[in-house]
From TrEMBL:
The chain crosses the membrane at residues 125-146, 158-177, 189-208, 295-315, 335-359. This is CAAX prenyl protease. GO terms for molecular function: metal ion binding; metalloendopeptidase activity. The active site is at E282, D368.
Amino acid sequence: MDFLHSQLGKVQQHLAFVAVDPINWKFYVQSIAWTVTLFESYLLIRQYPLYSKTEPPPALATHISAADFEKSQKYGKDKAKFALLSGLYKQVLDTVMLHFGFYAWSWTAAGSLMARFGYGSEYETVQSIGFVLLLFFGSSLPTLPLSVRLPVYLSPDLLKGWALAVVLISPFLWAFLRVFNWAGDRFVPWLMAFFLAFQLIMVIVYPISRLFKDGELRTRIESLAGKLKFPLTHLYEIDGSKRSSHSNAYFFGLPWSKHIVIFDTLIQQSQPDEVEAVLAHELGHWYYAHPTKMLAVSQIHVFTIFALFPAFLHAPPVLTSFDFPKSVAAQPPTLVAFLLFQMILTPLEAFVSIGMHAVSRHFEWEADRFACELQDKLDDEKMNDMGDRLGRALIALHVKNLSTVWVDWLYSAYHHSHPTLTERLKGLESFQSQRRKKTT
């Protein structure tokens, strides 16, 4: 542990200028934020002409009807227009809030509000929670006009979402600050442990709709899980149809106890053998330990953030740059410093996102190949068409979800964690061809 802290100390020495140099951090954040927004707008402009194509890609020509393709193109065009306008609108709002010192105002307002309930400035944790909630509601209200339908502005779902955010944010921030204050200057490993524990707890208590009913599909899934020695504890069905027509299936849980979740829309839109193929793909993620690997990558990411943060924790120039009064900047509140630090990290986060998507797409290829090779892994002739079944299921999912079938490569690299449908179908054909050559 001492070695870790000595190395972290060297990092802080290199970043010592942050605490003394009068850098215009607000201008830096504004410039970077607009650069990212304009780049994302450029990607949308690159993608937009593809929605005017009148025919699907050759690989999909025999799998998607003209009506479904036209509907998908129209849906994609509408989404692109909305994304372009809403992205620019939100960035203008962020610019206005930063320019006029909304963050500093929120901290002062939270302090004044807490004082009315008898909490003075010495209650930094209470004021920090109030500060974050003010930011949350203050930034949410101006975006309500982006809703497609007026009734959603004050709909029960929206109010429930806000209430849930308050219920979740408050205890999380309280625990975060308690760990931070307890650990002192050696907070990095302890906050790492806190975040990891929080992720595991969310996995355990994640709410599911209902247990899956008996039937052919349940028999298929339990049989496949048993052959692969997948530690299946429960099989659940979730009411995706109440929210949208999007379909999915996934697993979660601890290493010795896993749960499979299937959207009811996937069951309705696909045959049992196709749903089994989708689950074979998901079990491929388990077989290659993809969730564990992604968790390790995310922990490295979190560690990097925490390792850089101490230099910004005791940096009055950072807070004064964002219009905080000198009395507050002299002893920066932990949560304020952390949120400002997160904004400064925007360029790094953009690169991290691209890298994470690249890793995720690689894992998707591996899971697809796993499904295609199940016949050989399990020596079961009934699974010789698993790749074909998975292909049919993917096509059905894309058609029902109105997913885009023409995708610009740069747009996909930046936004997508999965390969495109055309890429996956070609990949499945390639995996099956390679397997046949090995067996002949």
